[in-house]
Amino acid sequence: MKPAPLHERIRAEIETAIMAGQLRPGDRIPKETELMAEYGCARMTVNKALSALAAAGMLERRKRAGSFVARPRAQSMVLDVPDLAAAIAARGQSYRWTLASRKVTAPDRAEAEALGLRGKVLSVAGVHFAEELPLAWEERMINLALIPAIAEADLSQTPPGSWLIAHVPWTEAENRISAGAAPPAIARALGIARAAPVLVLERRTWRGADTVTRVRQHFVADRYELVARFGPAGT
């Protein structure tokens, strides 16, 4: 099998370090001259690797300052699903997360194909609290092939969404919003009546063609609201 071009190997090794958490958002990566010395190659080869990472949203390149691991975009869509811990704290309310379950699983074939997953995932479930009242039940799948470092993360105190925002850049996201009735198990977890109204938010994020995470959150209907502010298109 023909070996990959050197610029592809450089790109892949830096990307692996970012996804494994060895390089954190905001960290500066080695200078081009340092990478040239490390890999024994020309500046053009290094530049090609860094340009590919920047195009994929993994790096921010700053003139005369160097290249830095990109910070996840806080607001990049008309309607975003925020980091609940930060959003609740910003409202001046107390926040708490209770981890209900955590396990490594292999999604069935249909689910793996639908989500573009390869290999095992970390499945996490738990409850978000605001002012000691249950706010939302969360079920999340995280792609371990892409983000192996989260397998060792302590998610008992830090919700997985907050951990991902702090560690993992993504390039694309999709939100789905619907109203529903709380299933019995979720109603019990949220302390509400069976079939009580809930707001269901589903979000999936990608990095390139690979799924980073898929999350489904059931919010107690009278404890959460969605607000989007925008102007006419083209202005």
Structure overview:
The chain has 235 residues and is an alpha+beta fold. It folds into two domains: 6-69, Winged helix-like DNA-binding domain superfamily/Winged helix DNA-binding domain (Arc Repressor Mutant, subunit A); 84-223, Chorismate lyase. The chain has helices at 6-19, 32-39, 43-55, 84-90, 109-115, 160-167, 184-190; strands at 59-62, 66-69, 95-105, 121-130, 133-143, 172-181, 197-207, 210-220. The strands form two sheets. Strands 3-4-5-8-7-6 form a six-stranded antiparallel beta sheet. The protein is elongated. It starts with 5 loop residues before the first helix and ends in a 15-residue tail after the last strand.
Query: By CATH's scheme, which homologous superfamily of the largest domain applies?
Result: Chorismate lyase-like
Provide the CATH topology of the largest domain. Answer: Chorismate lyase
Q: Strand percentage, roughly?
A: 25-35%
Low-confidence stretches: 73-78
* Rg: 20 Å
CATH class group of the largest domain: Alpha Beta
Extended strand count: 8
Helix/strand order: HHHEEHEHEEHEHEE
Distance from first to last alpha carbon: 52 Å
Described by the principal axes of the CA atoms, the overall outline is elongated
- Please give the CATH architecture of the largest domain: 3-Layer(aba) Sandwich
Largest sheet, described in full? 6 strands, antiparallel
- What level of helicity do the residues show? 25-40%
Mean pLDDT: 84
